[in-house]
Amino acid sequence: MNTTHLLESTLKGLFPILANITDYKVKHLPSLRKTIDPFSPKETYEEVLDFIQYQEIPIHTLESYLNGFISDNINISYRLKSGQSFLSKWSKNLGKHKQLREVCNDVIGIRFIVDLSRNEMESVLLKIIKSVGYTIDIINFYEKPKAVDDGYRGMHLYFRDNPKCFPVEIQFWTFHDAILHFYSHEVIYKNKPSQEAIEYSLAIRKTIDSLPEAPNELELSFIHFLYKIVYANYGGE
Q1: C-beta atoms surrounding 213 within 10 Å
Q2: Does domain 3-177 have CATH number 3.30.460?
Q3: 79: Cβ–Cβ under 8 A, 6 or more apart, which residues?
Q4: Average pLDDT over residues 186-197
Q5: Are 54 and 24 in contact (CB under 8 A)?
Q6: Considering the entire predicted model, what is its pTM?
């Protein structure tokens, strides 16, 4: 099965599992469309923990499904958001009129790193979203980078089929994306980066994107060679 068809079939199996996980109503928050400012971050995270505990069996099904996936062309990782990470994200978004569903949109996070070009990956995702019948939001960082552009690229899907439950975030990166993102996460964003560091990250992105295509006679392109090294050290969640 080629990479395109493998990605399609994997997502078609994934989405019903996510629908089962998000078949849940958050108990003590009036609406996830409310802004975060009036709410307590610690109490909101307690809601997250209640959700995870209540949906323990379908979440275990998700873990089993993802752990059973093996491919050289697609790497998948998964995590539940920690309390420390949740509180840090909450603090960064205070006073910005962000809704609960925006700040609590990655309680469950899944990442696909795919051996496809950007255009191939976009085409597959748009095709399957139209065909599955679930409510899924898309943020396309290829078309619209972050407000402060540090070179981050990729596509994020937010599974929101039930508006009364926390969404699930699914990130999609190409091998090109992963090489930069693992570096920037590990080196640049451990401390609050300066403007110079952000511009450096963007310059790396432009360099990676401008690399020539490898001749067909080579077993591995430079990107594939570098990706294997980087993923081996930093790829798992």
Answers
A1: 7
A2: yes
A3: 108, 109, 237
A4: 88
A5: yes
A6: 0.94
